[in-house]
Each structure stands twice: as structure tokens, then as C-alpha cells.
Amino acid sequence: MRSETLMRSGGGQSRLTYLNHPHHQQQQQQQQHEYFHHHSQSVLPRLPMLISHKPLAGHQTSPQIAMTAPREGSGDMGQSTAQRQPTGSTIPDALSIQEHGRMFNAYRQGKYLMPNDGEEQNRLDLQHYVWQTMVHNRLNFAPIRDDSRVLDIGTGTGIWAIEFAKRYPKSTVVGTDISLIQPTYSLPMNCSFEREDAEDEWMFDAPFDYIRWRLMASCFRSYKDMIYKVYAHLAPGGWAEFHEWAYEACADNAETEEYYNGSALRKWLEYVVGGGASLGRDLRSPLHYRQWMIEAGFTEVTVRHFSVPLNGWPQEPAASTLGNMACVNCLQFVNSVTKFLLAGGLSRDALPAFVDEVRANVRDRRMRISFPSYVIYGRKPDAPATHHGESMRVDNILNM
Ligand SMILES: C[S@@+](CC[C@H](N)C(=O)[O-])C[C@H]1O[C@@H](n2cnc3c(N)ncnc32)[C@H](O)[C@@H]1O
């Protein structure tokens, strides 16, 4: 297992700066090395399994089913949001309201900025398969026991929690979310779901052995507070693990970089990150998780770097297949971030044409872009830690 560091402080750096920095180019090459090396070895053999994926209990959707891209010319509006298509079941949350033609959580109305309807549930399931392919089908990287007490924060459709509970039947898995969009039937006995706002005081009295979240960068006001909270709710010796994308893109070469810099896709990312900031969501927060984990008291903090291509542009077949899956997810994701785009300054009138332009970029094979992604995990020590030395080291790393 390779231990690495996040080598930038993120927050406000433009993509171009990141791309042009020689250190980052080296890092990018390392990431691509890890990506292509692993994928050529380990993803290809799994692809038939993925493509003929047997639905999980309570999840009647499958990758092929989920891979339904939005139509051209639809902007964010006018899409039917009712069903996970064609045979999957939408799990509607009664506490939802309609906005911008989509359904959103109303338990904490206005707090979570992406939808919770069938279209989004489809997308979350597809995103799970994309992510699992990228991380070589590992459900966890932290070395946890198979009888662990597990908490999955912001569990979404619960697809990871169910899969983990099935793979480790001695574990006890709880998934929490502000939206109740998880199945209630055919669940493994060791898996359950609760409605909970993770920023509220947690209702659990017993500590967990493993607390994790995935792709929550748009959800919380303070990730630092959340990481400290995770630490407090872990048993001594327990592990935390976070899987994130930090809303960045990397170009494959200088030509693509120029092409990308003039594109609607780049503007889209700027609108989303800018909109997030104006709504109190720092989408680049994952770049600081390592530092915050060490400050909270975690030890053995490890960062793994991954990368997912925008579409099927890579020549290497497994990478290209992953990119093709990611492309469909991206086409749907573009449709999920309307609130961020509007908050970022895009006008409602300009929205449909802009979104269509972004979608064209997403499908464009000349757009040789990848998204750096991170798995970050660490252990709560058996005894209270004094970690001043570690904090110093992180400061140094973030200043590189
Ligand atoms: C982008 S989705 C990720 C879902 C899931 N972790 C996955 O990777 O498939 C974010 C999820 O977090 C939930 N969420 C957002 N804010 C939350 C909060 N404050 N507390 C609990 N869940 C939250 C949303 O309802 C949504 O299901």
C-alpha cells in the first residue's frame, strides 16, 4: 500500500496553475502511472462482472440501466425525475420538495444542494460503479476487522453500505443520510439506515470501529468540524476513511490544456466551485482532509491518489471503459448541480444552452481530461495522542 500526500493547498488555485506547476506535472504522471498500471491489471478482468452486475438486494438498478444520459436541449429543466429507469425502483422520500424541475430534500430544506429523486438515485448508483472500478473494487482501504461496527455518513442510496454488509456479514453497518432514499426491504440483517443530519449531534451512544464517507465535498459547512466529530465517535484503534474528488481537472498534455481552458467545461467547474463557495460549501475541502485528520489526532494517515478520465479518450482499453462509464455519470451530474451554477453567477436564461455546451465537451474525445480523486484514511490511537510533530510536518507539506 502506497502512502502519499496531497501536495497542494488547493482553495482558489486555478486549474491552469495546478497544471503548469512542474511538481504537479510530476504528481500527475505518478497518478496516471498508478491509474494505468492498476487498471491495466485489475480493472479489465472485473469489467464483465460489472457489466453483468447482479443487482444488490433492494437495488434493482444496474450499470447498463443507470447509463441513461440526459437528452440534448434539456438544460436542467423539463426532465422527468420520477423513476430509476427502466426497471429500477425510485425510493421517494416523503420529505422532499420540487425545485428547478427536480426533487430536493425537505427534512433540512435548502441544506443539501443536489436532488434526491429517481434520476439522482440512478446517478448515485452509477457513480458507485465508476468509483469502485477506479479503486480496484475495494470497499475499504483502512485495515479494519471484519466484525467492525461501521458508520457510512451520507450513504445516498445505501449501495456501498449494503455491499459492505454483504461482503462482511460479521460487521454491523449503519448508513445515515438526510434523505431516506435507501431500501427498507431485502436488506442484509447487519445493515440498517437512519435519517440523520450529520452536522447535528449524533444519536449513537456506542462508538464505531470504522466511520467513512464518500463524495460528500458539497455537503458540510465545516469539514474540519466533521473530521473532529468522526474522531470523537470512533473507538480507540478505530479507523476513518474518506473517498473524495476535489472538483479539479487535469489535462493530459499542453494542447488539451489550452483546449480545456477555452471550454464551457472549465467555466462550468468554475461556476460550480464559485457557487459552492457563495453557498458556504468549500468543494476543494478534501485537499485539507489529511491535515485536519492529523490535527484531530489521527495517526497512520494515508492518502491514495486515483484518477478517472472524463470520457473514453484513453487508448488503454480498461481506462477507456472507465472513462465511458464516467462520461455517462458526468452527463447526469451536469444536470444535478443547477443550484451551484445559478449561485456561481450563471443566469437562468443562459443555463440550458450552457449546459448543452458542457455536455458536448463531456462527450468530446479531444477533451483529454482526468479528475484526480483521493482516498484518505487514518487511525484513532489506542491512547490519547500528542501529535505536534505530525502537525508541523503537514504544514510543511502544504507549503510545498
Ligand atoms: C453526493 S451524495 C453521495 C452518496 C454516497 N456517499 C455515495 O457515495 O454513493 C451525498 C449524500 O449526502 C447526503 N447528505 C448531504 N448533506 C448531509 C448531511 N448534512 N447529513 C447527512 N447526509 C447528508 C445527501 O442526501 C446525499 O445522499
Automatic annotation (TrEMBL):
Record's compositionally biased regions (Polar residues): 77-90
Alphabetic keyword roster: Methyltransferase, Transferase
Matches recorded under CDD domains: AdoMet_MTases
MF terms in GO: methyltransferase activity
Alphabetical list of InterPro entries matching this protein: SAM-dependent_MTases_sf (IPR029063)
Region (Disordered): 1-40, 58-96
GO biological process: methylation
Segments traversing the membrane: none
Homology family: Belongs to the methyltransferase superfamily. LaeA methyltransferase family.
Name of the protein this chain belongs to: S-adenosyl-L-methionine-dependent methyltransferase
Organism: Coniella lustricola
